[in-house]
Specification:
This protein has 13 helices and 15 strands. By secondary structure, it is α/β, with parallel strands linked by helices. The strands form 4 sheets. A 7-stranded mixed β-sheet has the order 1-9-8-7-6-2-3, with helices on both faces. Bound molecules: ligand 0PR. Ligand 0PR is lined by residues 17-20, 75-77, 80, 105, 107, 148, 152, 177, 179-180, 205, 217.
């Protein structure tokens, strides 16, 4: 027997750090069925190409856009890179910059380096973009203002409508990174979507809160012309141009994104949000009552000042926990995180 037959994929029993989760059973089945299809060649793989259009429409429904354009990416990183690329390509300047809060995901650093765009990072107040700080950095060479809707470390949501207004005044695009937050935010009272603000592009990933199999990220754009900024000619394919970053792409991601959203939007996602928020509030309260300082939950994510030796002990006991840049313990209440899991986590904390 080969090594791979002996290896067991890790289960989610003690995973409190991941922003991905167990795919929905229908999403898993769909991924397997469409594994050998390539939406990068829509002229040949027509079925999966049609499914991608439907997946984008459903993603639009989640994001508050009745008629979006976009595609299923390899993940949030690709979507963020492509959003910056759209903004850079459409602008006239030779010296482009992008303004993003310090809390923005590190994929924007990759985007800036790849695309030769200056990344200006604005200060945050209570883990949200500081509007005055953003305004100070925006100038005539700004091609995009980035707002984060569900930050990686604290789950906070930037003041998106005001940031979109700032972008519009500067003639720049507004990009919202809702890679993780998107599938929760629709059920919250935050203003973050296409229906709340004049935003141009958005990252929203089915393989995070959407319960699709990896790789299924999402890039949504206000209209087809923005996607046109990415198009390159594809002379020998039946389709004449391609806007994606990768060429050959997994049909598994597209099929599983569609299966998950068909199954869960909107009722299943609403239930998931309610349950995840209740769990996050429960664990926040459990930590607060034990004397820890807690940030959140703004969305189903809690950060707490748990000491390094305590965190190390939790790791020893098999808990997958991670730290924020400032050193807080981070707990992400994804769908696989149950109340009983959190109870045994807190019991381990108490033992220490
Ligand atoms: N934007 C935001 C707000 C994110 O949180 C992330 C990923 C990305 C973009 C990039 O998305 P991709 O990783 O799909 O390219 N945030 C987590 C991180 O990088 C993802 C993660 C997933 C972490 C699974 C751990 C894990 O087990 O930390």
């Amino acid at each position: 027997m080969q090594q791979v037959e002996h290896a067991e994929p890790q289960d989610f029993d003690r995973v409190l750090t991941s922003m991905c989760t167990e795919p929905h059973p229908r999403a898993r089945a769909a991924a397997e069925r469409f594994l050998a299809t390539n939406p990068g060649d829509p002229g040949t793989y027509e079925t999966v190409a049609e499914m991608e259009t439907e997946a984008v429409d459903l993603l639009g429904a989640v994001a508050g856009h009745p008629d979006p354009a976009g595609y299923i990416t390899s993940g949030g990183t690709e979507a963020n890179i492509q959003a910056v690329r759209i903004a850079r390509n459409r602008a006239e300047t030779n010296n482009p910059n992008v303004v993003a809060p310090r809390s923005a995901h590190f994929s924007f650093r990759k985007a800036a380096e790849l695309l030769d765009v200056e990344l200006r990072t604005a200060p945050v107040v209570e883990h949200r973009a500081d509007l005055a700080g953003v305004a100070e950095l925006v100038d005539g060479d700004t091609v995009a203002v980035v707002g984060v809707a569900g930050s990686t470390e604290y789950g906070t949501v930037d003041p998106i409508p005001a940031m979109a207004a700032l972008a519009a005044d500067a003639g720049a695009l507004c990009h919202v990174d809702a890679a993780w937050g998107g599938f929760y935010l629709r059920f919250s009272d935050h203003d973050w979507g296409f229906d709340h603000a004049d935003i141009d592009t958005m990252t929203i990933d089915p393989h995070k809160g959407g319960q699709a199999a990896i790789p299924a990220g999402g890039l949504l754009v206000r209209d087809e012309t923005l996607l046109g900024e990415l198009a390159v000619d594809t002379p020998y394919l039946e389709s004449t141009s391609q806007a994606t970053l990768t060429g050959t792409r997994s049909g598994a991601g597209v099929a599983s994104a569609l299966a998950a959203m068909e199954t869960l939007w909107p009722g299943g996602y609403r239930e998931q949000y309610d349950r995840a928020m209740a769990n996050a509030e429960w664990v926040a309260e459990a930590l607060t009552s034990r004397g820890h300082e807690v940030v959140g939950p703004h969305l189903p994510l809690v950060a707490a000042d748990v000491s390094v030796p305590m965190t190390d002990e939790l790791r020893e006991r098999g808990w997958r926990v991670s730290k924020t840049g400032a050193g807080e313990l981070r707990i992400v209440c994804m769908p696989h995180v149950t109340r009983s899991m959190l109870r045994s986590f807190v019991a381990d904390l108490d033992w220490y």
